[in-house]
Amino acid sequence: APVVLVIDCKAMGESAAAIAKGFRDYDPEVNFGGVILNRLGSANHERMVREGMDKIGVPVIGAIYRDDRMHSPERHLGLTPVTEIDPTEAINMIREAVEKMVNLDQLLDIASSAPAIEFPETVDATSIEKRVKIGV
Prior knowledge:
The protein has about 140 residues and is α/β, with parallel strands linked by helices. The chain contains 4 helices and 5 strands.
């Protein structure tokens, strides 16, 4: 199946391309479709990271800018339980950012190149002839 790598680009420039190159070249049997750049700080930051990707020939499928309203709040020992927050606003913001900043047609083209998933045949539970004794 094809892989699209989402890279956290916070505090990275062209070095993000080294991460993409490592993933792309590590296993040549992996169908590497490209990257989505995440947590970019500015248009200049995006330009720097894209230049690195261009140098190594990795397609950039999208670029999402950093927005603190789109993350899960954290506590000292981990994430805040979902029962204590209303994720609706963050989910809607993420959806809007992805719709605006990710080339969804390109992403769907990559996804559609995946082979069909084959599932094993299921066994009908009534066709099992072995008797089972349960002790109480």
